[in-house]
Protein 1
Amino acid sequence: MEPSTPWIAVVAVLAVVLFVAAFAVLTRLVRTRRAMRRAGLPTGPRWVFWGAVLYFVLPTDLMPDPVYLDDIGVLLLALRTLCRSPGSGRRTPLVTESKETNHSFDSFK
């Protein structure tokens, strides 16, 4: 066994871990957009969502494909943009509360 073999194994494991993390963020982005569309909430510009998905899928990147840090960054930026309300610049509240009782309406479902 050559001395460089353990380093190759470590790099391969790291590349797999980064790919799994990037795929998890992509899955979260798709699920969040789908849930927002079902609820009738605005999802922001379509090009942000589709641009992030294409950046993840296409082989042309800022960094080589075994390093998925740039893909993760683009997907997180798209997720952040998706979760912002269009006019206020703040995140949209996902749970509404009653002012009288301070209870969540989600507990009555």
Note: Residues 9 and 75 are 27 Å apart (CA to CA).
Protein 2
Amino acid sequence: MSDTYDRLAQLLTAKFDVPAQAIGPEATLHDLGLDSLAVVELFVHVDQEWNIPVDEDEAEPEQTVHQVAAYVDACAVRQGPRTI
């Protein structure tokens, strides 16, 4: 899996108490026990973790972990390279 996927899985485990063995690419956020409010909170954490703007309106419980990781990667690409 990608670095983004691995970091997302760690975030789900650390912040939402999702058991690591439950996380898989095709598991939906709903399957992992996240309701709509928790999914929005996840996107807030993603924004902070990756320091990229994400659209919380895109947050849907039926998204898979793989889809969220791909979305984060797409947001990072749109942002472009970071400058210090």
Note: The chain has a mean pLDDT of 90.
Protein 3
Amino acid sequence: MFRPKLPTMPQPTGQITPPAVVIEPTSITPGTPAPPSAPVIPASAPVPSRPTVQLTPGTALALVGGGTAVVLVVGAVLVSMLLAVAVTAASVAICAVVLRSLLASDAKRR
């Protein structure tokens, strides 16, 4: 009654052969390596410059606003975590005082 009933696997009906794997040998022929050539840079070619970042007043305002939003969100999260720790500590302290009071009054009665 308490033993699990395991399903039986059906037996194969025909002859099962593994798939044929054909291995073909390959020959490795050593090649002659080409000598590395240094890139040739003409003297009159202009040097590609990096793209410059231009801060317009609108993008600067957007960056300041985004940074302010990030600071406010992170600050709210940290303050809420601190508040949760403080509430937990206060409740544990109240429980400790109540238990101490109960144990002290029980000891006085005996």
Note: The mean pLDDT is 82.
Protein 4
Amino acid sequence: MATARQLDQSTTSLYEQDFFIQGQRRELVRLIKQSPSLKAFIPEVLNELWQDAREDAEIETGMPIQTFPKSCSWDTDEQILNKTWWPE
């Protein structure tokens, strides 16, 4: 059952989240173009960020951290940095 906090997502809020994600993707692509060697660090950094996001999701939703996947299953090139890809 969804909590009141989970149900309090407006269309504007979702638009803002999409806009933010697109901006972050563009910035990552620029940084990798400037310094291609940074790409090798993506898996390590992604894992650290994923764990932070799990903790944030637990706090924001009130759901146990075990609810959220322990690791990111998305491919860096085909999904994460692809501006047209969105998880289902």
Note: Helices lie at 4-7, 11-34, 42-61, 76-80.
